[in-house]
């Protein structure tokens, strides 16, 4: 948490310092600053949940990047400097974040503003000397003309990498998940919405330099439409997840498994998956499979006592797992989910990683639930003793690391209370 406070403090220092410099020197090109400020604020107002996509406010990010890259307005050299860029981005982002803070989302908003301010500062500091020396004599004068394009692309790549590193660092310090997998996920995101944000920001800056501020609404419209489309996709995906969660609850409603078991296994499995470095798509498959891992019990004539399949003979566990995979396939869920459900009872050396995780976490939840006080520690010790043949050692050790972070990841998995 000290590192997280340090990042927040750096953003606060950069933002307040830029604000003081701008107040001292005055705002140049006020019309341009106002236009980009409004664009960034609108982007922040339409921001979606951080948990849904790599870029929470693509329109706001593109506007901030475009203002940092802006070197001219309708053929006239731009007069704003790096502190003014940071000040405009900070003021607009704060204004657009008011509704999110009002809804009780202060913590993600604080991280989001830190990322936005530091990325804008990095891009502005890189671009301001370039624009100044292109307009006058300086070391970048030779890059004027066609050579300006590769230099601009290089600056875009550096700014995108800075944003990805900041996003991964904030998530790492906030959740204590491994930094490497988080950074890989952010870099993968650059190939999707991230590349659209960078391209839109660059096109905005180049278009305004030639055509003036009228180019802003024209070139931000495609990204806005993309954002609206992604919002609809997010709604469809949320509905899909709710459907799977409802199917998973069928075993609880029918009395085959205790209430909350599937939800606990899914939450803890995802935490273990993140700790082991699974990608976003792999985590989605893991979540769905862990929610539906007990659905094969619906095919049983006689319910397993307390739904505790981990204590059954290996052949019976495999039979229930195959029945569950057959049910999952009939629901139309991704076949990868059915494979994980089917193979959760196989010898762990033959299992995919997701199936290893589901098997170990399911056994932990069942053993900890039934062991009374001190059950979580006893259950974890039993899993460690079973690493010779039943449970993957790396998964059990990852589970132990996740459980040790109970203050960050939630005490419910440890206490089951």
Main features:
417 residues; mainly alpha; two-stranded antiparallel sheet; 18 helices; 2 strands; 73% helix; disordered C terminus
Task: Tell me what the structure shows.
With 417 residues, the chain is mainly alpha-helical. The protein contains 18 helices and 2 strands. Strands 1-2 form a two-stranded antiparallel ribbon. Helix 3 packs parallel to helix 5 (106-135) and helix 7 (179-211) runs antiparallel to helix 8 (215-248). Mean pLDDT is 82; it is low at 133-143 and 407-417.
Give the topology, please.
Layout lengths: L1 H24 L4 H16 L12 H12 L2 E2 L2 E2 L4 H21 L3 H30 L12 H28 L3 H33 L3 H34 L1 H4 L7 H15 L4 H12 L22 H18 L3 H8 L10 H18 L4 H11 L7 H12 L1 H4 L2 H4 L2
Antiparallel strand pairs: 1-2
Helix pairs in contact: 1-4, 1-5, 2-3, 2-4, 3-4, 3-5, 3-7, 3-8, 4-5, 5-6, 6-7, 7-8, 10-11, 10-14, 10-16, 11-13, 11-14, 12-13, 14-15
Order of helices and strands: HHHEEHHHHHHHHHHHHHHH
Give a count of the beta strands, DSSP E runs of length 2 or more. 2
Largest sheet: 2 strands, antiparallel
- What is the CA-atom radius of gyration, in angstroms? 26 Å
Short description:
The protein is mainly alpha-helical and 417 residues long. The protein has helices at 2-25, 30-45, 58-69, 82-102, 106-135, 148-175, 179-211, 215-248, 250-253, 261-275, 280-291, 314-331, 335-342, 353-370, 375-385, 393-404, 406-409, 412-415; strands at 72-73, 76-77.
